[in-house]
Write a structure and sequence with these properties.
36% of the residues lie in helices and 32% in strands. It has three helices and five strands; from the N terminus they run βααβαβββ. Strand 4 and strand 5 form a beta hairpin.
Length: 90
Amino acid sequence: MPFKFEASKAFWKHFDKLNPQQQAAARDKFQTFKKDPFSPSLRPHKINRLTALLSRTVYAVDIEGDLRVTFYQDGQTIMSVSIGTHDIYK
């Protein structure tokens, strides 16, 4: 199923604050993410706290180290919510 990808303003705000190495890692992982956001290599996992807060199932994928991207699926659209450390789960 082909997905459409969007990102929230908060995602881009946090992305711009990442260092160049983290931005490059995120861009690299996006190549896998756009093929399959639930690829096992990204270690997708449900974030229960955000799922409850947003009233929709929210997932996170690993970028590198403690860097994560949170997202949800709305039909064929994948919406990236935020990017950062585990603090984005709060």
